[in-house]
Amino acid sequence: MGDPAGIGPEIIIKSLTEGALSGAPVVVVGCAQTLRRIQALNITPAAELRVIDRVAQAQFSAGVINVIDEPLADPDALEPGVVQAQAGDLAYRCIKRATALALNGEVKAIATAPLNKEALHLAGHPYPGHTELLAQLTNSKDYAMVLYTDQLKVIHVTTHIALRKFLDTLSEARVKTVIQVAHDFLRRVGYENPRIAVAGVNPHAGEHGLFGDEEIKIVGPAIQAMQAQGLNVTGPCPPDTVFMQCHEGMYDMVVAMYHDQGHIPLKLLGFYDGVNITAGLPFIRTSADHGTAFDIAWTGKAKSESMAVSIQLAMQITRD
């Protein structure tokens, strides 16, 4: 469900009652009472909420949403659009329970609604976001954040870290890991010989050391090592052109060095239908590629396209 004080509950109901996902084999892990409060506002299509204890009890039909209830400590005290510890704790518990279902083989994939990092921290769960939390819950070491649209696909070497600290954490080993994760992920979703471009760190990819030497000392050697292993990888590429080249079909995915380097071009092209994927987990995890949008929470204004696409993509990947 994500943070129940955000738009997560609303976009979940909309996604599962509109279009192709009505009646789809999807089970919601979240607070049933919060979903009922959303329904009482008449901002979502009508649906029957069926509370179940186990995935095996789910019955999938149009107009029905199966819910494994993970209750709030005080559901009546939940305030829409407000950072609250109990909301952050619910988001954590939902992820933990959904992860257990996936690891046990009861579900094939997880699609997550957005959580609020401040609420998560208030609840005593000091994770930067879904990606790091899922990695900890699954004991995954080699993982990375992917942003995915039909127009552009980007994987990140680093994500939720201050830009001042980014260069101190950048390493040849991490770049090699992310290139390998990118290759394996693209193979999993159907690319026979993935073409991967690696963005540089500095303007013009350093211009042969004139604007920084990270490309010479770190990124370049990582690329060469992965090329020696037979991977189809190119770079370091100038960051101001490589995303356009990937968008036009020259590459299948770009390896971005830090959060905004990869997020800005992808959100420009696919803000409403972009999907966040954690690659490198033992199961597929997708997510709507936006935040909790507290400013419009529980108002009926939230767009559900990204949530719906994330569910559809999870189903498509696991079906194939």
UniProtKB/TrEMBL annotation:
Against Pfam families, the record matches this protein to:
PdxA
What keywords were assigned to this record?
Answer: Metal-binding, NAD, Oxidoreductase
Molecular function terms in GO for this entry? 4-hydroxythreonine-4-phosphate dehydrogenase activity; metal ion binding; NAD binding
* Enzyme Commission (EC) number: 1.1.1.262
Q: Which domain of life is it from?
A: Bacteria
Q: Which InterPro entries match?
A: PdxA_fam
Question: What PANTHER family is this protein classified in?
Answer: 4-HYDROXYTHREONINE-4-PHOSPHATE DEHYDROGENASE, D-THREONATE 4-PHOSPHATE DEHYDROGENASE
Protein name according to UniProt: 4-hydroxythreonine-4-phosphate dehydrogenase
